[in-house]
Amino acid sequence: MTEPLHLHPDRLFPADASTRTLARDLYEAVAALPIISPHGHTDPQWFAEDTPFPDPAALLITPDHYVFRMLYSQGVPLEDLGIAPKGEGTGRTVETDPRAIWRRFAEHYHVFDGTPSQFWHDWVYAEVFGLDVRLSAGTADLYFDAIQARMAEADFRPRALMDRFNIELIATTEDPLDPLAHHAKIKQDAWNHRVITTFRPDNVLDPDHPGFAANLDRLGQVTGRDTGRYDGYLLALEERRAFFRAHGATATDHGHPTAFTADLSRQDAEVLFNRVRNGRVRAADAETFRGHMLVEMARMSLDDGMVMQIHPGCWRSHNAPVRDRFGSNMGDDLPVATDFVGGLKALLNRFGNEPGLKIIVFTLDETTYSRELAPLAGHYPALTLGPPWWFHDSPEGMRRYREQMTETAGFYNTAGFNDDTRAFLSIPARHDVARRMDCAFLARLVAEHRLTETQAYRIARDLTYTLAKKAYRL
Amino acid sequence: MTEPLHLHPDRLFPADASTRTLARDLYEAVAALPIISPHGHTDPQWFAEDTPFPDPAALLITPDHYVFRMLYSQGVPLEDLGIAPKGEGTGRTVETDPRAIWRRFAEHYHVFDGTPSQFWHDWVYAEVFGLDVRLSAGTADLYFDAIQARMAEADFRPRALMDRFNIELIATTEDPLDPLAHHAKIKQDAWNHRVITTFRPDNVLDPDHPGFAANLDRLGQVTGRDTGRYDGYLLALEERRAFFRAHGATATDHGHPTAFTADLSRQDAEVLFNRVRNGRVRAADAETFRGHMLVEMARMSLDDGMVMQIHPGCWRSHNAPVRDRFGSNMGDDLPVATDFVGGLKALLNRFGNEPGLKIIVFTLDETTYSRELAPLAGHYPALTLGPPWWFHDSPEGMRRYREQMTETAGFYNTAGFNDDTRAFLSIPARHDVARRMDCAFLARLVAEHRLTETQAYRIARDLTYTLAKKAYRL
Amino acid sequence: MTEPLHLHPDRLFPADASTRTLARDLYEAVAALPIISPHGHTDPQWFAEDTPFPDPAALLITPDHYVFRMLYSQGVPLEDLGIAPKGEGTGRTVETDPRAIWRRFAEHYHVFDGTPSQFWHDWVYAEVFGLDVRLSAGTADLYFDAIQARMAEADFRPRALMDRFNIELIATTEDPLDPLAHHAKIKQDAWNHRVITTFRPDNVLDPDHPGFAANLDRLGQVTGRDTGRYDGYLLALEERRAFFRAHGATATDHGHPTAFTADLSRQDAEVLFNRVRNGRVRAADAETFRGHMLVEMARMSLDDGMVMQIHPGCWRSHNAPVRDRFGSNMGDDLPVATDFVGGLKALLNRFGNEPGLKIIVFTLDETTYSRELAPLAGHYPALTLGPPWWFHDSPEGMRRYREQMTETAGFYNTAGFNDDTRAFLSIPARHDVARRMDCAFLARLVAEHRLTETQAYRIARDLTYTLAKKAYRL
Lengths: 474, 474, 474
Prior knowledge:
3 copies of one chain form a homotrimer.
Chain A: H1 17-30, E1 35-37, H2 44-49, H3 56-60, H4 65-73, H5 98-107, H6 116-128, H7 140-151, H8 158-164, E2 167-171, H9 181-188, E3 195-196, H10 202-205, H11 212-223, H12 230-246, E4 251-254, H13 266-277, H14 283-304, E5 307-310, E6 314-315, H15 320-326, E7 334-335, H16 340-343, H17 345-351, E8 359-361, H18 368-377, E9 383-385, H19 395-409, H20 427-447, H21 453-471
Parallel strand pairs in A: 1-2, 2-3, 4-5, 5-8, 8-9
Antiparallel strand pairs in A: 6-7
Helix pairs in contact in A: 1-20, 1-21, 11-12, 13-14, 14-17, 18-19, 19-20, 20-21
C-alpha cells in the first residue's frame, strides 16, 4: 500500500493553535528571502561546467554520509551502496547498478523516520521531482524512473537550480593548494558573485595531516616561497589567502580536533615549525602547532579582513577498519567533548577584543552552548556563534540551540544559518527547516510575551538573511 | 483532609488538545501489548517458589533504593526504615515494625511529588490494591491494612501477578558463580520461557571487586578449569556462559565504572592476568583488565550469540560511611561523566563492524545522547542504544532521550524499553510510562508533520514490543 | 515609530490555553507573598544611609555586568559606557555624561531581545518608572528624563523601595575583614531583621587571591589572633564568623574555582598552611588548601549553625587584557565544566550524613543537574540544591532546572529562589520570573496529571517562600 507524500504547509510549527498562527505569519514574511549559503561543500565544478548530475544513486545516496552511515549502522555493507574501497577493501563486490542501490535505500527508508535526512529527502522528492507518494520498497522503481527522467531535462542543470532555489550566494571550500580553476571559470562567466571559495588550510597547518610535509613542499612551489623556513611559510600562507580573496573568498575555515589555541613567541614558533616540518611530530607538538597557527590565522585575518571560522571537536575516522578499507568521510567522524573556555583563551586574549576581527565558532558538543559559547560570545567583541552544526542541523538541534544560546548571547551575536552540505538538492530544504524553526521559536517567545510581534518580525528577517551577510562580510 | 487518588486516562500526554488526541489514539493501539522485560533485577526465587510476598514495608519500601535514598536525603535514618547495618552500624535501633516504617514513609510522601517513584507507587496503589484516596500521614494505616490484606490473597502470588501484569517474558540477573537453581526449577515447571537469566560477570572480571580472587577460585571449582591461568580462566567463562544459555540467557550484562575498553595481545593479556590474579592490583591495571575483558566478552558473544549489555559510568558506594555501616546499594551510587567515543574505540574497532554482534549501551550521562551515543549507534552496525536508564527512567528523562537520540540514530537503532528493577509491582507502571511518553513524542512529531500517522502507529508498536524482542534475540 | 511597552499579565505562561489558566491561578496564589532574598550583592550602605541613588546610567547600566558585557560584545568600548580603567587603561576617553551613556545603551537595546536583562529592565521601566513606550534610540531622552525625575522623589529611597517591593529580608555579602559598620547602623535603627550580612571568606581562604598574605595579617590584627599559625588562623575565622552572626548572618558563601574538597589531617593541614602562608603557593597547593578549608568551614558550620553556600565552577577574569586595564567583574567571568561527584566527595564523606548541617550548592554547568547534583541531593541529608544561578537565572534556565532536577531530587531538596544581584531595582522582576516559571512548570505537571492541583498549590507556596526560609534558617 502506498502512502501519499505531502509537505504540510505548517510543518515544524508548534501544535498550539495560536502559537502556530504566529509562527506561520512570521514564516510567510521570510519564506521568499534569497538563500545565503556562506559555508558548504558543494563542488565548484558543477557551477563552472554546468553539466548534468549523474544517476539518482550518485545524486542522492553515495555522496551523502548522513544517508549511508545510517544504512551501514543497520548492517548494509558500504559496497552494496556502490561505495568502492579506497584502501585494502573487504573483497566484497561493489554494486554498480544504480537502480539496485536505490532499491536497497528504499527498503530501509523507515530507518530514517524522525531524522532530518528523511525530512530533507521528502522535500526534494515532492518539490524538486514532483513525487506524490512516499518512498518505500514498493515505490522504489517509480521513484528511480521519475528522478532519472527529471535529471535529464535541460533546466536540471546546476546554474538553473541555483536560480530556481533562489540561492543568492554559495560558498564552496578549498584547500590552499587548490588552483581554483573552477572559480576562475565562474569569474570569467561573470557568475562569481554567486559562487565564492573559502580558504581551508588544515592540510598545511596540521602536522598530523598525512600529507603535511608534501603539502608544504607544494605550497612552496605554488608561491615561490621557501616553506622550509617559518617566515617563508607564513608569507606563502598570506599569498594564498590573497589568491583566495581574489576568487571571492571572504572567510577561512579551520577544522581542528580541539578548540586549543596557543600564542607562541616568534622564536618558539620557529623552533616548533622546524621540528614538525622535518617530520618529528609528537602529539603535543602537533596540537601546539595547530593551536599557534590559529592565532597566526587571526593575525592575518585582522590584516586582510577574512572572517575566521573554527569547527573543532570532531574525532575524524574513528572506525579504523573502515578508514583502512574505504578512506575518510565514511560516516565515522564522531563528536567529542570540547573545552572552548580553556581552549580559545590564548586566541581571545590576543585578538578577542578587536572589534575589527570576526571569529565564528561551531560546536558538536551541545553542552557548551549555555556553559561556554553563549557566555564567551556575550563578552568578546570578536566572537560570533555559528549555527547548530552537522548532527545538530535538525529541528530539535535548532530548538536547543536557540533555547540555550539566546538568553546569554542574544540573537545578535549569532551568524544566521549555514547548510554545510555537499548535498546540493537539499540546500533549500535545510534553509527552510532553519527558517521554520526560528519562526517557531520566535512565535513561542511572542506567545509567552517575551518579545513583541514587531521585534519578532525584525529578528526573523535578521536570522534569515541579514546576520549571515553581516557575519560573512558579504 | 484526604484527597482522592485517581489515575487519569490521559496522564503524561501533552496538554495541547489535538496532540493529546493523537497521543491517546497511539497509546490505545499499544496499551494491551504484552510486557517484554529483558533487563531487570527481580528475584528468581519468587517465580520458582511462587511464595507470597512479606509485609507492605518489605514489599514496597525496604528493597527500593529510589524510595529510601530520598527519605534518607530528608534526614530519615536508614534504621528507621528497617534497614539493618551490614557493617559496623551506628548503634541506632533498627525498626522492626512494618507499620511504623510505613507510617514514616507516608508522612514524607510529599517529598516524592513530581518524581517517577510517586507516579509508580500511585499506579500500584490504584491498580493493584484498588485504593482510591491518596497516601498521606492520615491515610497511612488505611493503606497498610488494605495492602496487607490484599497480599494475603491467593492470586497475589508472583506467577499470578506475571499473568495479571501481562508479562510475556522477564529476565533476571545472576553472576557466573550462581548455580541457577531457581531457574532450573522454573525450567522443570515448563515455565522457563517466561523467566530467563542474564550473565553478569562483573565479580569475576573486575580486579577491584572485593572478592575477585576468591571468586576466581570458585569459578575454577565450579568448572573444573584452572583459573590460575589465563587460558583456563577464559575457558571457565565460556563454559559458564553456555550454562547460562542453557537456563535461557540470551544476554550478558556489564556494569563497569567507565566505558573504557582495551584490546590487548594474548601475551599482554596473560601478563596482566597473572598480575591481577595474584592480588597485585594497581588502579590502572584494574581498568585495563576490565576494558580488555569487555573485548573478550564481545569475542565470546560473536561465538555464542549472546547480546552484550554495557552499563558504565556509575560511581558505586560514593558515601563511604554509609557503605561501611550498611553495605552497597544504599542509594549512594552516583553518575559520572562518561566518555564513550574514546572509551569504546578499542571494542568497536575490533568488533563494531560485525552485523552478527549486538552490543546494547546505556548511560547515566545524558550529555552523551546527542554528542556520542547517537552518532556511534548511527554508524557502527553492532551498536544499539539501550533505553533511558535508572535516574533517567522517568517522563522527562524519556522525553530528552527521544529528542536527543532520534534525529541522529533514528528509532531503529534503539532497543525498546527496560524496567531494570527489582520492584516487581512497579513493572507495569514503568512500562506504561514508557509507552505513554513514546506515544506523546510520536504524537508531537505527527502534529508537527514530521511523521505521518501510519509511520507513528508502526513505530509505537515497534518501540513497545518488536524492538525489545529483536534487540535481545527473544 | 515608538512601540508601546506593556507587561502582559500572562507573560511566561505556557501558550496552551488550559495550562495557561492553571499557571495563572497558581501564580495568583503566590504573587503577593513577600520576597525573601537570602543571597545577593546589594550595598548595605544603601540601607544604612538610605540616600538617593545617583543618575540613570549609574543606577541601571554601569554596575550591571549583564548589561555592559553584552554591549561590549557588540563592539561598544567600556569607556563609552562610563567604565573607568582601574589598571593601565587604553588611553580612550571615559564618558562622563550619563545621558550620552544612556543613549548608547538605548541604541543597542535590541541586542538584548530575548534575554532576561531586557525582561527585567522592561519590568523596571513599566512598574517602577511608569513608562509606557519601549526603549529605543528614539525614546532614549524621554526615558532618561523620566527616570531622573523619578529618582529625585522622596519615596525613591532604598528603605522605601524595600517596602514597596515587599522585600521581607535581604542578605548582603561581606568578607571577613569588613567591619560591618553599615550593618551595625542598620541594627541600631532596629532594621536588622530586614538586612543581614553573609560571611564570604574567599579572600582569606584562597592562597591564589592577590591579597591573601596581607589579608591574613589584617585578620590577625582584627581578631588579635596569631594568623601566622594554623591554630590561630582557625580561631580567627571562628571569631569572625561569630561577629557576622551577631550582625544577622545565617550563612557563609564560598566562590571557589572548582568543587574540589579535601579532608587533610591536622598535621598535613598545618604543613600546607605554613607553605601557603609564606607565599610559596603552587597551583596544586592552593587547590588543596581551598578544598581543605571548605571542609573546615563545614566543621565550623556544624558548630555554629551557619548554612554553607558553595558557588563553584567560574573562571574569573578570563579576558586578561580587560582585567589588566579595567580590573575584575568586567563581564568576563566564564563557566567551566564542574565535577561535583568527585569534587565534593571528601566534604560529603566527612559531614554529608549530618542532618544538622545544611550545604547549598550552585552550578554554572547545567550538565550536572541531572547527572550529579540531583542524585547527590537525593541521597546526602546535608545537601540542598541552590536555584539556577547567574547565566541560568532566566526563563529557559529555570525551566531546564526544574525539568532536570525534580524527578531525582524532588522539590523538597531545593532552596527556593535567590536573585544574586546588586541590581536592586531588578530584584522584584527576578523573583517574579521565578514565581511565574515555577507556576508554569507546576501547571504543566498538573495538565499532564503528574500532580494534583492540591499538590501544586502547596508546592508553589513552598518554592516561593517556605523553602528559602527553611534552607537559610531565617
